[in-house]
Recover the amino acids of this structure.
């Protein structure tokens, strides 16, 4: 918070999680117990104390300088790990591509890390109609994903190994994080053994297995698509609720522009007087489509 001339900084959590907090105003020189001259042309307000232990710590930073600081530290390197064929005609490919697009437009340096599989040769931008280019790293795997359950696991395990070493050799990069999606265990089971902060997007609850317990013990933050998943993860793994963000699945307003029901039915040449139910997706038991006739 602040005014038109500057910003008051009392908490550093807004500046990129655990990646940059140790690099921003936390050196021994900047741990003020008495009034000293702060960096960046700012000033310490009275009653300022230790940065690490006292929430009353407060800086006043000139706005122009504060903007530069935030811009510097909020720009990070993100490795988005997904055990998917990309591009793909499946819906999860659209979700991953649009997430990468949103991250890039927010100023994040994103690299999408996926298995090297036989797929469409077009770029992600061309295939999905994105507004930006999405850098992609394709890693070696045994491309046997469609040849039965056992060979699928072998292929996925090869991706887990390849992605582990890919990230291991980049673990010392400054301001780098790993972001993954819970498509399967193969996309995230290796992450607790790295030294890079990692975050996971969860689309469902998880069984209390050894792999998942280790994963949630070391994950830096979790993003869930609804509050039920958040509550389930908190109850099963005792993961702090304050480290779980709920972000529902979104719609890109540039592609889907709201219009009236009358105009939409007229455009699709549908009758105006009847009630319609629209479902998009696969017909699977766990999707609960059996309730439609009852509804």
């Amino acid at each position: 918070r602040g005014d038109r001339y500057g910003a008051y900084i009392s908490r550093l959590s807004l500046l990129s999680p655990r990646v940059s907090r140790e690099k921003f105003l936390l050196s021994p020189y900047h741990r003020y117990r008495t009034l000293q001259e702060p960096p960046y042309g700012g000033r310490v307000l009275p009653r300022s104390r230790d940065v690490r232990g006292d929430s009353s710590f407060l800086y006043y930073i000139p706005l122009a300088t504060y903007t530069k600081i935030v811009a510097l530290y909020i720009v990070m390197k993100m490795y988005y790990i997904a055990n998917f064929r990309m591009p793909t005609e499946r819906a999860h490919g659209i979700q991953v591509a649009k997430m990468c697009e949103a991250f890039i437009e927010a100023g994040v340096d994103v690299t999408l890390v996926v298995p090297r599989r036989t797929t469409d040769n077009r770029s992600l931008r061309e295939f999905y109609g994105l507004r930006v280019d999405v850098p992609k790293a394709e890693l070696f795997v045994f491309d046997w994903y469609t040849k039965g359950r056992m060979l699928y696991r072998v292929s996925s395990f090869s991706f887990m190994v390849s992605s582990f070493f890919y990230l291991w050799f980049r673990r010392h990069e400054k301001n780098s994080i790993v972001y993954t999606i819970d498509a399967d265990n193969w996309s995230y089971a290796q992450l607790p053994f790295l030294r890079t902060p990692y975050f996971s997007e969860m689309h469902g609850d998880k069984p209390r297995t050894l792999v998942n317990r280790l994963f949630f013990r070391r994950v830096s933050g979790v993003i869930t698509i609804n509050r039920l998943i958040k509550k389930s993860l908190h109850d099963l793994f005792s993961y702090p609720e304050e480290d779980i963000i709920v972000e529902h699945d979104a719609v890109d307003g540039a592609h889907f522009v709201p219009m009236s029901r009358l105009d939409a039915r007229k455009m699709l040449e549908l009758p105006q007087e009847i009630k319609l139910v629209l479902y998009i997706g696969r017909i699977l038991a766990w999707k609960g489509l059996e309730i439609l006739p009852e509804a």
The longest strand covers residues 109-115.
